[in-house]
Amino acid sequence: MLEELEITHLRGRSPLKLSGGEKRMAALAAVLAGEPTALLLDEPTAFLDARARRRLIQVLGRISAAQLVATHDLAFAGEVCTRALLLRQGRLVADGDAMNLLRDRALLEDCGLEAL
Known about the structure:
This protein is α+β, with helices and mostly antiparallel strands and about 120 residues long. The protein has helices at about 20-35, 50-60, 75-80, 100, 105-110, and strands spanning about 40, 65-70, 85-90, 90-95. Helices cover about 40% and strands about 20% of the residues. The strands form 2 sheets. The protein has a two-stranded parallel sheet with strand order 1-2. A two-stranded antiparallel sheet has the order 3-4. β3 and β4 form a beta hairpin. The radius of gyration is 16 Å and the shape is elongated. It starts with 19 loop residues before the first helix and ends in a 6-residue tail after the last helix. The model has no long low-confidence stretch (mean pLDDT about 95).
């Protein structure tokens, strides 16, 4: 998994010496090595540079585990999610096809999200 996430250079390094993005990718590699049937990802693109973000999208697209993602990164959501749930003040306001919901500018703005 280290090779697939392109983080072999982190092998043997102390987690205390890793950047935020490196820590996220190392943690993801550790979880994926266990071949989970489901993943719960909270803001998975936070602290990732563009290259690591792209690798994350590619890896998530290849694994068979069910994925539940909490994110404000709508471009990321559009690339990896087939279904989306939108919340406003902690309450569900929309549930449906991710691309349809992510194109609804008024709905996104009503939920405090910046439309793409």
